[in-house]
Predict the structure.
Amino acid sequence: MARNSIGGHVTREREYLFVDGGSLRAAVRKICQDSFGDANAYQPHIPAIASGGYDKVFYYDAVPGKAHEEAQPAYEARVHPDYERFAKIQALDRVHVALGQVVGADKRQKGVDVRLAVDMMTHAFRGNITRATLFAGDADFVPLIKALVSEGLHVTLWHPPQANAELRGAADSTRLFDFKINHNCLTADGQQSAFQILSSGGSILSPARENVVTVGEYQFAGRWKSGILQVWRRGPGNGWSRIDMSAPNASLARALTAFDMINAWDVAATGESWIET
């Protein structure tokens, strides 16, 4: 365990994760649109987001504001699913939720950025943390990161590909959020990851039951059953390799698309014709 000395006392490294929920949801929507042609295909899977060994996780988001002349009962019914989603996040171990409100014609989150910045600065100045990870992509957080870095805190920016360049440059280190790396951070049902590699490696024997096809330089075989996709591949001069991927609630076509994005085996174009179901 890494340690540092503060005020003559030896303390262990402590790291908190701070998540701009609006930025996370926008990143997932873009991944879904780019990958599957449907921005609403999946939602962020917060248990996976929070699973990086952080001491605490702080999640900041906003509920929609009341529309002009909207009746109170109608408004409460409209935002009820949002409050249910936030309650489930709050119920996770070590995870804490802070809410603002979406207001104005431009749908800006009121109070979220300020609350996040104040909390990060407070934890840093109180010595609660020696490192912090911020999930964000907005240039509004540049002054915050610069201030924390100048105070000696190690700040990691976890960001979508389209994040502001100055924001990335202000952090001590960066971590890209994209589908290939973070496919387990998406969910369809809120209960489990939409895609997860279960196992991979060499296979001693070629698959016995499956149809074996040749595509280019490789031989392939596969099976799709109960949301589990298994694909075998044998290349020139090599033995069989196999990758198992779970894709609950997905069609075979979508599972193959995800499989290729993660593994680059190029099976999506032909897989439905030779994978056993």
